[in-house]
Task: inverse folding
């Protein structure tokens, strides 16, 4: 069976400041009709560039310096403009990463889909991608749809003209776990139904394991390994692939995975928290409002010294709001928050200096957390002098260098500007800055989300070491269950501002009591091709925390909020 | 959508109120007592006092301000100190003449600059872009009176196609003024277009680099369809505000050009009223210009709303 | 640190972080437009300063018998109606235009930057009120505002600097506030706020360093507009008093003689245009070199 | 960051070239016409006879927004009057009185009752015949309080409207309250144009007169047009029509002339710079009206130090009028030697004390004002004030008098400076009859007495001259009056300057005297 897509020794280079920077080096791959090939690699590996060449598209300023791309037998880059347009119209279609940006904001959905050609009426297409009330939706504008709905519209647009090849560039990045799972299942169903050849670009090994038939691993523009999915996951040959697979946290890891040079993976057990550890910070019945809407409905939790408490939930669950409220950057509308050294109710600037330094926040996005115009050392020494930890300028600089080495970075980096550091390095400087006030509570707001898998593992391990060495109470916010499993001692699961389940990590992950927790766990994709599909048995439920008590206690601090199944299946409306 | 317009209207009225206060205070600060200005030669102290009393100048400032605003609301701006005629009528007449220039200018400038801006944006870094950017740069660097002077040199003196100077008074009909409108309009259009071209070019480049344009291109659409259907509506949005600001600038910019062509417009009246310290006329012109500014901005906002569905459907939730 | 820690390809590992100014200068040198622009402006400044050396003619004293001569070996740009050498007046003319415009721009941009940053940082009612007042000032045409101020206080250079500040500060505030608003939500500002740093400290340490590029571009752009405005003022007879040599005034004076000695009007026009083109090129070059979106912000 | 990529090197050069080219081209286009040598000021308009017909386009400053065609009014639209009306008596080219609607006139022995024989067969534009009733009505209209005519101040002390008699349709008898031999000369003023009987209410708009042109259209401070009156009693005018444009701004009027949009600038004394430009242009030129402007440096005789006549005489002897003429006017005028009566006036006497700085210094020492320092006010109201002031300062320095020249704002010059500061610069049009000149400006208590001079002997001489019927005797008396003004008056008259009138090179037959030009003979070449 001849392949519908064949790329041989493709080279692409990007011109910047007079120098030619190679992005893709001699990449060759084949895709047969009906099969799905995944392009895997970290950011900057050139996977998106290769995918785009299938449609003859190159980013502004880059050009093909070698090799050829054939789609459906035709050399894409040799096609005249009109035939290239026909190819893009009918033979190969692409689903972009961030659908919100990829849809024209000033045009109704229906017209954009109709524009893509093909005989299928728009309403049927919308139905095919399982979108509710298709007729009414067609008249809406992109900004009026949710992330998941926008992505489904993009898919409808791609399959409108019945293409032979579907290119998916990180189709579900940025979507919540449950929505992501829904979109992936839709893609799999359409692929089989229409017999499409698909090229999936992703950095998420779970997505790849779930969807791809073959996998091609890219590193810095070069193909390091290509094999059938099962064989690659079970017996990776190339050391880079091995390390990549090893550093992905697994749901069933009892602790943090440590990966050595050769890629062997050992899981480090978590240190138990001493029973007598004092409570560093406690929140009781905290509520936070955004204008008229209430983001957090009466949440209570406590974090003891040396313990890592994880707040888990989808976007919009209020976990970041809680973190920022604790750090004093938002004022709660109810409930109390207290710390050994005083009441945390007041906003940070108004808290006494002694209390202020004790609770520190580490930000999610490493790029914007450091002042680009000041050296990294400056960013750390400023709080040192502000909080009085260091007396003079020289003392502050010297302590700053020591802190930088504490976060496992070369102190010589102190004079560099943030732009000259990698994402991981910048995040560690963020942590060093937080440590400057000698805090006893550290709040980590999704600090690993923006990082590549390998870098993520190191930062987590650093956090784990620090809380042990410095006996820190650590509040860890994340939506990635596998990461939480590895680093947290106790877990609190949040849904729309309400705690649905909490307890020790082993208990919650071992035997999830609440249906929502179970659904989250099931939707999380393990990097293991033969992981079970989405179990259909999770019943629909509705909250039942009524007058007769809120919690059912499952022992040893593991509690679940009352709920009851709902027998009549509500129309499966996708939010 | 309605709530957005209402809020926008309320802030427009607020701005107008504030600028009327500013104008009133600024004009009161002008030196030279109004009464002595009128009486001139035989300004004996008692005659001055009598006139001040007659004009109500001895009343406290805020009382006079309230009278002025009440009058202004129904078109009565008091009487001019120089001509003795009703200020409202006079300003309306001069404004009408200037509107003639403004209309032609906006017609030339906006259409011309949008076309050029889009062209420059589409042919980025190629010769059309270089040519248009260079011309707009020079256009922006030369003040209106210079462009007007050069136009007079070329098209009135060397080639007597257009009148160098307007010989008619403010009450001249459109027929008499029409031949004299083209050069001032062209002078203003050159300067105004220069700004709009640069704005249009930047936003076209911005939009064409947007992801949705790439998606449209990867859907196999023709370049023309991509530009007109997908790129232009979003590209025009930021340009609208620059156009609105420039139209409002016309109320001031006209003064210099009208002085060159002795054109009986609001600009010329502004200059003469300041020279003669004709306070009611100055106040009236400032207020009218403020209204024009606010109306232009409002029009730009409403235009933006028409173009940008995100604003229009803010109310509807998912 | 395992080998996996792939430093992104674009950030070349340079030695110790260069000081901000040298970094800015290196970026500037890379943009030809900025260099050409700054060169033109430099030439104008030099000519204005060295005018007495470049021409032996007195720009003010006129000789009636030498009036209205076309360009000739003795008078390269001919003479005006009063018999004064046009070239001399153009050379000296730069002094008034450059002197007043640089002073006016400095005052305006400095004031505008402080107010703009404060508005962006403080936010809330202060920001709204300020926005409303600025909008009111902007609604009055700049020419009228200038005329009123100049008529009230006379046409001395100091008055003109004040008048221009009154007219242009609102626009500078709007641009700087826009730039500062882009910086304020950044996490490093939030972190500083969480530490409890004072508004002034945040402004000085965190916000200002990040908008200096916008402020510099705004300075160059505003200077070009101020030169235009000053020449328009002189043209209308509200700027420099005769017989001081000023380009706007020269165009006004020689306009009637344009049919007889066009050069008497064209020489100041060319001088004015080249200076402003220079300033604009510098502003555009700076904007591109430092990645500031000059056009969108400044209307 | 959007890439606002701007022109690379190639187009930056293009920018420089484009700017220069676009401006330079227009310069080459017109061909630099700057004449090599400084353009001399031609003496008079181009000679030669005009072609019949054609339209003359005049740019004029509007008297005011409420200007009117009523000749007697202070807001009369000055340029229209000469075209629409005639007077009883007018001033001839030689400065002597000449008949207009009055063919002849004579007075009784004591010059108290004047009889005017009116021209027959003259009709107004609306066809009605001109009779003595119209002439009488015109005088009554001028003297009527409601008209508030400036000329009333001159005629009211002489004429009682009630005593006018019209014995027959073509004779007007005017009995005077006090004898005045110069009475007919007072009727040459442009307020005295004849209007139809009973037309006061409408004349402001209709402009019905007996003049060479009929009114076609008139808008106050706006455009207007008059067409040739075919059956005019003194013959059809050369032109078909005259179009009037009111342009308030002086440089705009000059611009219109240079661009060929108008043919004549009326009531505009071009400053030297503009005059040189107009003279050098190929479409227009400058014509000169000899001694049309009388420049004065009035000293307030009621203010120290000018209360002392010796100081006044010293100030006059200290400066040399010839120097002032050369420095301020580059010779385009004649020295005044402090005599307000211009040389062109028949009553002018040539005698005057010579320039004597030593005598001035001696007189000042005598008066105790050694090393006198005094402020001389000037302004840009008229282009020649400052040059005259500087020339006087320069000349008076030799006599040890230090003059400080102060410039005042033009728009408030005649409200804050004139008749208020001890020494300032001002000017008048010449062409006033000698009696009107002395009565209005030098008689004690007169409204325009800018030197606040009150000299009994001068008033007596003036009254005797007015009553003297014998022409030669009367002229001697006016001569005595002039000598008194020169010796004891407060007004220094350094010079009479020519008025420079901007006119198109196509205009022929332009002759101006006594405020107006000859509407009959003026025409356009190549009409």
Result:
């Amino acid at each position: 069976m001849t392949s519908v897509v064949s790329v041989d020794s493709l080279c692409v280079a990007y011109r910047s400041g007079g120098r030619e920077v190679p992005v893709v080096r001699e990449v060759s791959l084949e895709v047969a009709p009906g099969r799905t090939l995944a392009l895997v690699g970290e950011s900057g590996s050139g996977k998106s560039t290769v995918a785009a060449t299938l449609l003859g598209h190159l980013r502004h300023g880059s050009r093909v310096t070698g090799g050829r791309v054939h789609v459906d037998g035709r050399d894409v880059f040799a096609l005249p403009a009109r035939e290239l347009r026909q190819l893009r119209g009918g033979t190969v279609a692409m689903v972009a990463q961030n659908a919100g940006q990829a849809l024209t904001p000033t045009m109704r959905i229906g017209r954009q889909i109709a524009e893509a050609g093909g005989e299928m009426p728009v309403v049927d297409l919308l139905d095919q991608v399982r979108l509710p009330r298709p007729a009414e939706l067609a008249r809406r504008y992109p900004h009026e749809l949710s992330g998941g709905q926008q992505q489904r519209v993009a898919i409808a647009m791609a399959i409108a003209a019945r293409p032979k090849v579907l290119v998916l560039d990180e189709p579900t990045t940025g979507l919540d776990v449950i929505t992501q799972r829904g979109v992936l299942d839709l893609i799999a169903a359409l692929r089989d139904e229409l017999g499409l050849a698909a090229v999936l670009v992703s950095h998420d090994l779970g997505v790849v394991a779930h969807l791809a038939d073959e996998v091609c691993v890219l590193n810095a523009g070069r193909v390091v390994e290509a094999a059938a999915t099962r064989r690659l996951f079970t017996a990776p040959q190339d050391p880079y692939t091995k390390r990549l697979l090893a550093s992905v946290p697994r749901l069933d890891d009892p602790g943090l995975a440590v990966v050595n040079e050769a890629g062997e993976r050992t899981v480090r057990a978590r240190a138990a928290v001493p029973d007598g550890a004092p409570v560093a910070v406690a929140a009781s019945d905290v509520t936070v409002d955004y204008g008229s809407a209430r983001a957090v409905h009466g949440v209570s939790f406590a974090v003891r010294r040396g313990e890592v408490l994880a707040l888990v939930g989808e976007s919009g669950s209020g976990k970041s709001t809680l973190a920022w409220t604790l750090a004093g950057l938002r004022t709660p509308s109810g409930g109390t928050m207290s710390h050994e050294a005083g009441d945390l109710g007041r906003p940070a600037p108004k808290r006494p200096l002694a209390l202020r330094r004790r609770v520190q926040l580490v930000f999610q996005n490493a790029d914007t957390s450091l002042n680009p115009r000041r050296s990294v050392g400056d960013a750390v020494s400023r709080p040192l002098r502000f909080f009085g930890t260091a007396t003079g300028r020289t003392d502050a600089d010297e302590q700053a260098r020591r802190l930088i080495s504490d976060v496992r970075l070369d102190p010589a980096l102190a004079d560099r500007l943030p732009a000259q550091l990698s994402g991981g390095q910048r995040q560690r400087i963020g942590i060093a800055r937080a440590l400057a006030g000698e805090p006893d509570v550290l709040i980590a707001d999704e600090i690993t989300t923006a990082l590549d898998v390998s870098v993520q593992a190191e930062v987590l391990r650093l956090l784990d070491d620090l809380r042990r060495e410095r006996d820190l109470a650590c509040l860890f916010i994340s939506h990635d269950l596998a990461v939480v499993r590895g680093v947290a001692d106790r877990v609190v699961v949040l849904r729309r501002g309400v705690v649905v389940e909490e307890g020790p990590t082993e208990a919650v992950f071992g035997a999830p009591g609440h249906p929502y927790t179970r659904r989250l766990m099931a939707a999380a994709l393990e990097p293991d091709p033969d992981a079970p599909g989405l179990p259909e048995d999770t019943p629909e439920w509705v909250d039942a925390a009524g007058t007769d008590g809120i919690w059912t206690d499952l022992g040893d601090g593991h509690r679940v909020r009352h709920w009851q199944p709902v027998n009549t299946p509500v129309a499966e409306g996708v939010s | 959508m309605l709530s957005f317009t209402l809020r926008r209207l309320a802030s427009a009225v607020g701005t107008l109120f504030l600028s009327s206060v500013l104008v009133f205070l600024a004009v009161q600060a002008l030196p030279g007592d109004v009464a002595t200005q009128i009486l001139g030669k035989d300004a004996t102290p008692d005659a001055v006092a009598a006139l001040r009393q007659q004009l109500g100048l001895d009343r406290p400032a805020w009382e006079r301000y309230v009278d002025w605003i009440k009058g202004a609301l129904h078109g009565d701006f008091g009487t001019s100190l120089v001509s003795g005629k009703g200020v409202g009528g006079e300003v309306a007449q001069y404004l009408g003449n200037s509107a003639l220039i403004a209309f032609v200018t906006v017609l030339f400038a906006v259409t011309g600059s949008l076309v050029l801006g889009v062209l420059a944006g589409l042919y980025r870094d190629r010769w059309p872009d270089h040519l248009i950017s260079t011309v707009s740069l020079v256009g922006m660097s030369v003040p209106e009176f210079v462009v007007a002077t050069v136009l007079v040199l070329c098209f009135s003196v060397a080639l007597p196609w257009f009148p160098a100077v307007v010989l008619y008074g403010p009450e001249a009909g459109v027929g008499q003024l029409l031949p004299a409108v083209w050069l001032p309009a062209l002078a203003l259009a050159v300067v105004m277009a220069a700004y709009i071209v640069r704005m249009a070019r930047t936003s076209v480049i911005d939009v064409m680099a947007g992801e949705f344009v790439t998606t449209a291109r990867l859907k196999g659409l023709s370049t023309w369809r991509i530009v007109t259907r997908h790129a232009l509506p979003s590209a025009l949005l930021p340009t609208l505000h620059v156009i609105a600001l420039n139209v409002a600038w016309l109320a001031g910019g006209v003064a210099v050009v009208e002085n060159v062509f002795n054109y009986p417009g609001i600009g010329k009246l502004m200059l003469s009223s300041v020279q003669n310290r004709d306070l009611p006329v100055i106040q009236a012109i400032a207020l009218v210009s403020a209204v024009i500014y606010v109306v232009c901005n409002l029009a730009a906002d409403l235009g933006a709303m028409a173009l940008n569905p995100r604003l229009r459907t803010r109310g509807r939730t998912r | 640190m395992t080998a996996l820690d792939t430093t992104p390809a674009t950030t070349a590992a340079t030695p110790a972080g260069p000081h901000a100014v040298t970094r800015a200068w290196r970026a500037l040198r890379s943009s030809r437009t900025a260099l050409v622009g700054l060169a033109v402006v430099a030439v104008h400044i030099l000519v204005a300063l060295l005018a007495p050396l470049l021409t032996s003619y007195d720009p003010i004293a006129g000789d009636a018998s030498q009036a209205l001569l076309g360009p000739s070996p003795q008078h390269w740009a001919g003479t005006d109606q009063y018999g004064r050498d046009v070239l001399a007046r153009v050379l000296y003319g730069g002094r008034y235009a450059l002197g007043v415009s640089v002073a006016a721009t400095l005052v305006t941009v400095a004031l505008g930057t402080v107010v703009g940053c404060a508005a962006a940082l403080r936010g809330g009612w202060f920001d709204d009120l300020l926005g409303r007042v600025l909008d009111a000032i902007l609604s009055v045409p700049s020419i009228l505002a200038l005329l009123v101020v100049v008529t009230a206080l006379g046409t001395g250079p100091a008055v003109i600097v004040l008048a221009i500040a009154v007219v242009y500060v609102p626009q500078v505030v709007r641009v700087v506030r826009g730039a500062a608003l882009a910086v304020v939500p950044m996490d490093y500002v939030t972190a500083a706020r969480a530490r409890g740093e004072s508004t002034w400290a945040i402004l000085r340490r965190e916000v200002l360093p990040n908008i200096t590029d916008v402020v510099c571009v705004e300075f160059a752009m505003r200077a070009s507009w101020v030169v235009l405005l000053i020449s328009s003022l002189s043209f209308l007879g509200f700027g420099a008093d005769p017989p001081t040599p000023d380009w706007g005034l020269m165009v006004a004076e020689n306009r009637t003689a344009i049919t007889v000695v066009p050069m008497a009007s064209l020489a100041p026009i060319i001088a004015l245009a080249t200076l402003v083109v220079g300033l604009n090129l510098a502003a555009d070059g700076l904007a591109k070199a430092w990645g500031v979106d000059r056009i969108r912000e400044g209307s | 960051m959007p890439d606002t990529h701007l022109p690379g090197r190639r187009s930056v050069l293009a920018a420089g070239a484009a700017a220069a080219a676009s401006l330079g081209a227009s310069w080459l286009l017109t061909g630099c016409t700057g004449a090599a040598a400084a353009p001399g000021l031609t003496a008079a308009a181009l000679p030669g006879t005009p072609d019949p017909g054609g339209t003359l386009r005049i740019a004029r400053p509007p008297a005011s927004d409420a200007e009117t065609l009523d000749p007697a009014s202070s807001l009369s639209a000055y340029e229209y009057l000469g075209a629409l009306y005639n007077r009883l008596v007018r001033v001839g080219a030689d400065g002597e009185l000449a008949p207009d609607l009055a063919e002849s006139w004579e007075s009784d022995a004591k010059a108290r009752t004047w009889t005017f024989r009116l021209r027959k067969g003259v009709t107004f534009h609306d066809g009605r015949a001109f009779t003595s009733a119209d002439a009488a009505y015109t005088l009554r209209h001028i003297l009527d309080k409601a008209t508030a005519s400036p000329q009333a101040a001159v005629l009211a002390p002489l004429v009682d409207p009630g005593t006018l008699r019209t014995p027959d349709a073509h004779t007007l008898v005017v009995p005077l309250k006090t004898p005045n031999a110069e009475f007919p000369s007072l009727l040459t003023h442009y307020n005295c144009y004849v209007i139809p009987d009973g037309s006061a209410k409408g004349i402001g708009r209709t402009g019905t007169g007996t003049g060479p042109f009929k009114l076609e259209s008139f808008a106050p401070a706006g455009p207007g047009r008059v067409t040739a009156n075919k059956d005019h009693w003194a013959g059809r005018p050369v032109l078909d029509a005259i179009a009037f444009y009111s342009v308030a701004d002086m440089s705009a009027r000059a611009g219109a002339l240079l661009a060929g949009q108008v043919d004549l600038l009326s009531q505009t004394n071009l400053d030297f710079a503009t005059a040189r430009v107009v003279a050098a242009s190929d479409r227009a030129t400058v014509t000169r009206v000899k001694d049309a402007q009388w420049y004065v440096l009035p000293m307030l005789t009621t203010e120290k130090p000018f209360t002392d006549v010796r100081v006044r005489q010293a100030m006059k002897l200290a400066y040399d009028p010839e120097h002032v003429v050369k420095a301020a006017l580059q010779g385009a005028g004649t020295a005044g030697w402090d005599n307000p009566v211009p040389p062109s006036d028949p009553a002018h006497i040539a005698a005057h004390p010579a320039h004597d700085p030593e005598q001035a210094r001696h007189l000042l020492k005598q008066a105790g004002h050694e090393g006198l320092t005094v402020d001389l006010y000037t302004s840009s109201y008229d282009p020649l004030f400052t040059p005259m002031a500087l020339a006087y300062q320069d000349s008076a320095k030799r006599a040890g008098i230090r003059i400080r020249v102060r410039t005042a704002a033009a728009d408030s010059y005649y409200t804050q400076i004139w008749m208020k500061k001890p020494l300032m610069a001002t000017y008048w049009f010449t062409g006033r009859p000698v009696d009107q000149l002395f009565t209005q400006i030098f008689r004690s208590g007169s409204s325009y007495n800018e030197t606040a001079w009150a000299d009994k002997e001068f008033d007596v001489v003036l009254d005797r001259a007015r009553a003297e019927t014998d022409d030669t005797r009367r002229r001697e008396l006016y001569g005595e009056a002039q000598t008194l003004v020169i010796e004891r008056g407060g007004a220094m008259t350094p010079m009479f300057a020519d008025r420079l009138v901007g006119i198109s090179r196509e205009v022929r037959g332009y002759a101006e005297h006594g405020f107006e030009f000859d509407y009959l003979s003026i025409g356009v070449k190549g009409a």
Notes: Residues 87-277 of chain B form a domain with the MetI-like fold fold (CATH 1.10.3720.10). The CA atoms of residues 128 and 253 of chain B lie 29 Å apart.
